Amino acid sequence: MLSSNAFLLIITLLILSTLLEPLADKLRVPFSIVLVLTGYIGSEIIIGVFDVDTGIRWDNFKTIIFYVILPILIFQSAIEINLKTLLRNFVPILIMAIPLMILSTIVTALGLYKGIDHATGFPWIAALITGALLSATDPASVISLLKKANAPERLRILLEGESLFNDATAIVLFSILISIATHSQETTSWTMLLIRFSEVFLGGLLTGIVIGFVAFLIIKLLDNQQSFVIISILSAYSCFILAEDVLHFSGVIAVLACGLTLGAVSVGQFSETSFANQLWSLLAKIAESLIFILAGITITLSMFVDQWLAILIGIAAVIFARIVIIFGTFPFLSLLPGIQPVLLNHQTILVWGGVRGTVTLALALSLPLTLDYWYTIQSIAYGVVIFTLFTQTMTMPILLRKIKS
User: Going by CATH, does the domain composed of 57-286+304-371+380-404 fall within 1.20.1530?
Assistant: First the structure.
């Protein structure tokens, strides 16, 4: 468990970063950057100047991230998304989030494996794990920019829907690959890997739908706002634990399915002005802030000194994979019946809007220390996230202006 020093440090940094949020808005700097810098500078001062042990230990992270933070982030994204617009664009979103996400993982992994070229220190399984966690997109900051620029709603829903589903897919794939790497699961072929992926995915999906409907029936029976909020929180965590630990399916997919189901059947309960929506938005903001602050606390300069080449290869591999899956497949997607074509300038925004953030950092923080290459993977993840936040997010307004002109 985290020590009292760790809790005190995190609470202090959360308060400090909240005080700095108006300044970030004024300077038009993504708040996530402020959180990372606050975590890094704050921990450096605590350790370097005051010589105080922060009490933060790596072996705490996996439980906190998987059982506390990820259910909040996934459930909140699921209940907040516009279901009507999502369903109208469901086919391209689903293709982007599952087959193209897996393709992105493989392309990124190939780039990393060939680029690093150290089969002993960075084997193929390490490249696949890195490719999986780097394939999870987090376009929240980009979507806010698109809203300010009055970009088409379809463009926003494509990015938002892709992120919602591919985050879940990335986490499932990451978990399976970690099980293989740590020898807790024996998978001897790609066929077995695909079968296991299908089992945990579909099992989690069914579990989440069932829990979502049960939660709805209980909410309808109790019929008051407080009960609605409490049941929604309990359903998110109960379906995660039931799927993950009891049935051995994907807890994340279960939470996603539960959130979508509850959001669909509870019409109006999760509207933007409702208490439930505001509470879940607040919980999600706290969870996201914790991830970025923890990333800042755990960042070291030695990462960028020792692993600079691996980080650069990771950045190049991620951008190349994004170009491949968008420009290489969208012209063919538009040939499918009933699929509205995506304009070339919109494809450009989708490429540059594939920012990495919360989920990538969360998975990087949850890496088992028993893996010899965990530090390399984490360094690459941090480098890619920082690059996408500082470069892609900060330059998106320029790209939007050029495309409009």
Answer: yes
Prediction pTM value:
0.87
pLDDT digits (tens, 9 = 90+) for 358-395: 889 889 988 988 899 999 999 999 999 999 888 888 88
Give the separation between CA 62 and CA 151, rounded to whole angstroms: 37
Domain boundaries, the chain: 57-286+304-371+380-404
Is the pLDDT at 187 greater than 90? The verdict is no
